[in-house]
Write a structure and sequence with these properties.
single chain, about 425 residues, 6-stranded parallel beta sheet, 5-stranded parallel beta sheet, 17 helices, binds uridine-5'-diphosphate-xylopyranose
Length: about 425
């Protein structure tokens, strides 16, 4: 092992942990990933990925073949001689909105007295401000540094984002430990921001909250455009040339969701309220997002009722919270589906990969064409390329009705008008 290759333990093999472990091995380190879920570990060893993430299976296999990536359920035998221990454990929102840190707490307690002096524990999970201190106290060993190293991985492009970071953030009271963590990202040309733990944790929350607020703004602009007859796609294009606004994350949609934005905005708002400094802009962004999901639902319901009454056959295209992921956690598409089910009984759904815990309440079919066949109304809720790749004529031939509610603005209304179909999007005449 050269001086730049290190022995790393990664605790947790979920969306963050598995990507982190496999990518650190790809960078040349010797990584052992630990999970308490024996079945999950056994499956990963057989090449079965527990999550859908482009490129992940390949780098997991590459790491295993090179001998630099291993998987186990044994926590202590793994961490006992690790130079770095990455905590990639779930921090789900608890009932009051604050983050549930029980997984991190139970693991950190097991470290007490079991780590080599000088080991660096790295908080990769999104943890509330001041959690690095909590982990430090639980380990109770001043020779062990705890470094906050938040992830900025988007689901669906997590491998790319890990290997091509725009910045690396490390927060630690001991700057040397922070720099050692930053140095693990071999070959990354991006800036490394070494700061204190509280600032590092705050960077993560503020980044996600700002992005969520940006999407809420774009969706509210779609509502405004719908009222005044402007085209929100053109309006956002007009904004995108302003470098202060940026030209990404300006796509209107059915609302934001997923396992990060909702969790992180709740946790940030909860921390701010406790500090008597409420972040009302984020509180309103969350409320606005909820309203927007209802607005899109109402558009689909109105479209169905106007055309075919309550027995209209509605085809829902897309169930995950966005394209290129199987994750349905806090998916706006699921929220819209459940709301539609209250008034409509003739609903069919299709999603290429979404992993739903319980498919029983959903009439889910296995192909796009099967879903739109006989549909009076089609609603596009995630931006899978196959939905826009299907030629308009095929929609026209297979659908029973002639209206598509395109909540992702991925279809060209003009092209569809040539085959007699109306594409309806909020804020796009
Ligand atoms: C986000 C952050 O981008 C990432 O940096 C962080 O580490 C984790 O949270 P992710 O939750 O995977 O990543 O999804 P992202 O691609 O950011 O989208 C979040 C939500 O915003 C999705 O519901 C998506 O559909 C929506 N969105 C995003 C839009 O509606 N319009 C856009 O232009 C972009």
């Amino acid at each position: 092992m050269s001086r730049s290759q290190h022995k790393i333990a990664v605790i947790g093999t979920g969306y963050v942990g598995l990507t982190t472990g496999a990518c650190l091995a790809k960078l040349g380190h010797y990584v052992t990933c630990v999970d308490i879920d024996e079945a999950k570990i056994a499956g990963i060893k057989e090449g079965q990925m527990p999550i859908y993430e482009e490129g992940l299976a390949e780098i997991v296999q590459e790491g295993q073949l090179s001998g630099r990536l291993n998987f186990t359920t044994q926590l202590l035998t793994t961490v006992v001689d690790a130079e770095f221990i990455f905590l990639c454990l779930p921090t789900p929102p608890s009932s009051d909105g604050s983050a549930d840190l029980s997984a991190i707490q139970s693991v950190a307690k097991q470290f007490k007295g079991n780590l080599l002096p000088g080991t660096i524990v790295v908080n990769k999970s999104t943890v509330p401000v001041n959690s690095a201190l909590m982990v430090q106290d639980l380990i109770g060993d001043p020779t062990i540094d705890v470094v906050s190293n938040p992830e900025f991985l988007r689901e669906g492009s997590a491998v790319h984002d890990f290997l091509n970071p725009e910045r690396i953030v490390v927060g630690c009271d001991n700057p040397l430990a922070g720099e050692r963590v930053g140095a693990l990202y071999l070959g990354s040309q991006c800036p490394v921001i070494v700061t204190d733990p509280v600032s590092a944790e705050s960077i993560k929350y503020m980044a996600n909250a700002f992005l969520a607020m940006k999407i809420s703004f774009v969706n509210q602009a779609a509502d405004f455009c719908d009222a005044v007859g402007a085209n929100v796609v053109e309006v956002m294009r007009g904004l995108s040339f302003d470098s202060r606004i940026g030209n990404t994350f300006l796509s209107p949609g059915p609302g934001w969701g997923g396992s990060c934005f909702p969790k992180d905005t709740r946790a940030l708002v909860s921390t701010a309220q406790e500090a008597q400094r409420p972040m009302t802009l984020i509180e309103e962004s969350m409320r606005s997002n909820e309203r927007h999901i209802s607005t899109v639902t109402a558009l689909i319901t109105k479209t169905a009722r106007d055309a075919y009454g309550t027995d209209a056959r509605i085809a829902i295209l897309g169930l995950s919270f966005k394209a290129r992921t199987d994750d349905v956690r806090e998916s706006p598409a699921i929220a819209i589906l459940e709301a539609l089910q209250k008034a409509h009984s003739n609903i069919v759904c299709y999603d290429p990969v979404a992993k739903m815990a319980d498919n029983s309440s959903v009439n889910r079919v296995n192909s796009l064409k099967e879903a739109i066949t006989g549909a009076h109304v089609v609603a596009i809720l995630t931006e899978w390329a196959e939905f826009s790749d299907l030629p308009p004529i095929e929609y026209a031939e297979l659908m029973a009705g002639n209206t598509i509610v395109d909540a992702r603005y991925v279809l060209d209304p003009l092209q569809f008008s040539y085959v007699g179909l109306t594409v309806r999007s909020l804020g796009r005449p």
